[in-house]
Amino acid sequence: MRNDTRTTLDPDMIDMLRSSLRHVLTDESTRPLADRLADLGWKEVVDTDPATALRTLFEIKGDTLSGADALGPSLASKYSELTGASSASVSIGRPGHLTLVDGSGAENEVSVDEATWAALQAHGRWLVACELVGIGRHVIASAVEYTKDRVQYGKPIGVFQALQHRLASAHAMVVGAGHLITEAGLDGDPWTATVAKCMAGQTAEFACTQAQQCYGAIGFTFEHEFPAYLRRTYTLDRMFGDWRTLEHEIGSRLQATRLVPRIGSL
Amino acid sequence: MDLRFPDEAEAWRAEVRSFLAANLPADWRGLGALDRDEAEIFSNAWRRTLAEHRMIGVTWPVEYGGRGLTKLHQVVLAQEFALAGAPIYRIADTTNIKMLGNTLLAWGTEEQKARYMPGIVSGDATWVQGYSEPEAGSDLAGLKLRAERDGDDWVLNGQKIWTSRGMDGTGVFTLARTDPNASKHRGISFILCELPNPGIEVRPIRTLTGDDEFCEVFYTDARVPVANTIGPIDEGWKVANSLLGLERGEEAATNPIFFRAELDRIVQLARDVGRADDPVIRDRLAWCHTKVEIMRILGYRILTQVLRDGRIGPEASISKLYWSEYHQVATELAIDLLGAQAMVREGRKPFKHFRADEPGAANSTNSWIDVLLMNARSGTVYAGTSQVQRNIIAENILDLPKEPRLERP
């Protein structure tokens, strides 16, 4: 088991955090997310346990499909931590290039060293992985509810193993990906972040396709929340490398180094 | 399996080819190469040309606008049109011609055929399908829309859903429960409901690609003559099910052509984005290639069976599983090739909401987003889900025991 001295949020705090974040991410306010988070005492939470705080924020963002811009400001914090330079938002461009956005919205492309760029990309991969896991968990939970309610042949369709197995497989993947994003947050290693992003993309896509098969035709309409989750998944999976590309990247590195990096304390 | 076509089929093939050469524009590159407005105009004009030349329903008797040819001729026509990238009719005609036209000819009375066939052939009529209900999807025979007899009329009450192209419909062929006391598959009748009808309202449902493809149809004391019942009263289930053979036979011949053309587009896309040398991409392309080849052979087998026996067995389920699951993998590959910008919409949206985009379509993100999210992803749901197909394979081909908990009267 992990044996370290990092401060962590206790379970009650995490529950409170979850419900506050859910509120912040779904309210109708047009205020910037950073301001709304500040009301929560976000800085203190992040200082106490950055891995849990950020992971929770992005998981709930995926779960609620919130459109709030959390990625840019989070990358900006990371950039500031790495270089001391401050900005409101950062987006990652081609290798070695970042776009910094200041408080007034003015954009400025800058060149950075390889290590800084790679660290930011890894951070971005991890955050997006958390969001993808949140999506995967949400669509499976919704599909489970749907298959309990939807009656065909005189039974809830959830009695059919054909659907149970789909949802069970997807759930198992979501659990696995969930552990990986937790580890990636704790060890901060770019390798773990890449593995987590790869697995999270694959998981969210799998979860969506399994859920959609359970929904049937309604899952192809805007009457239902599902299509928005599906499209968000395809979009997020493409950020910082889709899962198949990452799979290739991981495989190539394993072959080149002939080393299998350890993930977490397992 | 004999892959050769008989001589008379080859003679007909030559005739179809010369028809296409004479009537398609000289620079024809497929419907997908036209923008949506041009494609709409072309489709309507082309539909009229086909009707004038008796290229619609060639298996239908001459007195109903056809040519009295065999199913094999129809298959050859469909093949040649597919190879030329020419539509065999408008998209809305799938239910109009393939489904209702053939049903009417098989089950309709002389009066019914005389009244309805001319519009179906000319394209003045567009019949859409009223089968699924909110509570009757995979379990279609669980449908509840009620038709009660009142003198010479049926009075219909209830709701249909997922009626494709319902907004374009000049009529809905409706499966209605006419005997609520009979067992589930009995007591259903096949009724033609012409539109407009003061008791029938069609409302669009917006699909995830933003189109008004599906519709809901609401029936409120809608009166329709009992004379509009196709086939015997209370035997509509049999009427509705009699069609599958023809539809699947033609598909078996044309699907491999469309999927081959689509795969060619994906190979081109791989070259365009500079990933043709990428071993992972090549691997995935090769996988797709083998599947399309298998589909082609499978198609010939099914075709042979349909032409020989006049109907198709549970093998149709293998074919359906094959192409629908293949198509999801192939379209995901295309989206991966488009890269990080794949979900940013650009270019022409497809008309067709099933199978591949129209022949000649450019490799735009709009083409592939719609084909992935709608056409391909829905393939494992419509016309019998993959789960239903696997049940059929398990029970009717492998002869495994039926699922115990299903109540199937």
Characterization of the model:
The complex is a heterodimer of chains A (266) and B (409). Chain A has ten helices and five strands, in the order H-H-H-H-H-E-E-E-H-E-E-H-H-H-H. Chain A has 266 residues and is mainly alpha-helical. Chain A has a domain at 115-257: Butyryl-CoA Dehydrogenase, subunit A, domain 3 (Up-down Bundle), CATH 1.20.140.10. In chain A, a hairpin with a 4-residue loop joins strand 1 (89-92) and strand 2. Chain A is globular, with a radius of gyration of 19 Å. The mean pLDDT of chain A is 92. Chain B has 409 residues and is an alpha+beta fold. Chain B has three domains: 7-90, Butyryl-Coa Dehydrogenase, subunit A, domain 1; 127-241, Butyryl-CoA Dehydrogenase, subunit A, domain 2 (Beta Barrel), CATH 2.40.110; 244-397, Up-down Bundle (Butyryl-CoA Dehydrogenase, subunit A, domain 3), CATH 1.20.140. Chain B has eleven helices and eight strands. In chain B, a hairpin with a 2-residue loop joins strand 2 (146-150) and strand 3 (153-161). In chain B, helix 7 (244-272) runs antiparallel to helix 8. In chain B, 44% of the residues are buried. Classes of the chains: A mainly alpha (266), B alpha+beta (409). Chain A binds chain B through residues 151-155, 157, 159-160, 162-163, 209, 212-213, 216-217, 219-223, 227, 230-231, 234-235, 238-239, 242, 244-245, 248, and chain B through 132, 135-139, 142, 161-162, 205-208, 210, 214, 280, 328, 335-336, 339-340, 342-343, 372-374, 377-378, 380-382, 385-387, 390-391, 403, 405-408.
